[in-house]
């Protein structure tokens, strides 16, 4: 049987990566660029399940970070210092509402796994105390 502490810890690490990605997206939500290729694209973490029965290891891993295919916002601002030759600037494709929901979900998942970690630790300590009596 896999160690529940390892499972909870791996899930907490994965959620921290998700929170960091959300923070990066939020920080770049208002950024602009001079071309569509240079514009910031929203990033999302991709999780995968880890299950190795021979080593009795289980948990969650971050298998990668992918960029969103959502369209880049294009605005006509000929006086902007980063405007292209036609007067357009290109904003990020970050949806701040989706990112806030993603942040709340990741935060709650982290809290749940921290509670699992704490409860498992408490139960293990109580089990050890039974043997001392």
Per-chain topology:
Blueprint: H1 4-27, E1 32-33, E2 43-52, E3 57-67, E4 73-76, E5 88-91, H2 96-130
Helix pairs in contact: 1-2
Describe this structure in words.
The chain has 133 residues and is of the alpha+beta class. The chain has one domain. 44% of the residues lie in helices and 23% in strands. It has helices at residues 4-27, 96-130; strands at 32-33, 43-52, 57-67, 73-76, 88-91. Strand 2 (43-52) and strand 3 form a beta hairpin. Helix 1 packs antiparallel against helix 2. It is elongated. The chain starts with a helix and ends with a helix. The model has no long low-confidence stretch (mean pLDDT 91).
Report the major sheet.
3 strands, antiparallel
CA-based gyration radius: 22 Å
Helix content: 40-55%
Portion of residues in beta strands equals: 15-25%
Which residues sit in consecutive blocks of at least 5 with pLDDT less than 50? none
General shape: elongated
The total beta strand count reads: 5
Task: Count every helix, treating DSSP H or I runs of 4 or more residues as helices.
Answer: 2
Mean pLDDT: 91
Placed side by side, the strands forming the largest sheet appear as: 1-5-4
Elements, N to C (H/E): HEEEEEH
Question: First CA to last CA: what distance?
Answer: 27 Å
| Structure class | alpha+beta
Domain count: the total is: 1
A few lines on this structure:
The chain is of the alpha+beta class and 133 residues long. The chain contains 2 helices and 5 strands. The protein has one domain (4-130).
Descriptive labels:
single chain, 133 residues, alpha+beta, three-stranded antiparallel β-sheet, 5 strands, Flagellar_basal_body_rod_CS
């Amino acid at each position: 049987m896999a160690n529940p502490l390892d499972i909870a810890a791996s899930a907490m690490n994965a959620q921290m990566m998700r929170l960091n990605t959300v923070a990066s997206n939020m920080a770049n939500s208002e950024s602009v660029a001079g071309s569509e290729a240079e514009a910031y694209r929203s990033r999302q973490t991709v999780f995968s399940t880890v299950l190795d029965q021979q080593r009795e290891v289980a948990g969650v891993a971050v298998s990668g970070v992918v960029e969103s295919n959502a369209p880049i916002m294009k605005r006509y601002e000929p006086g902007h210092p980063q405007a292209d030759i036609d007067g357009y600037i290109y904003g990020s494709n970050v949806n701040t509402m989706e990112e806030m929901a993603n942040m709340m979900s990741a935060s709650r998942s982290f809290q749940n796994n921290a509670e699992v970690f704490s409860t498992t630790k408490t139960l293990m300590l109580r089990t050890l105390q039974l043997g001392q009596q």
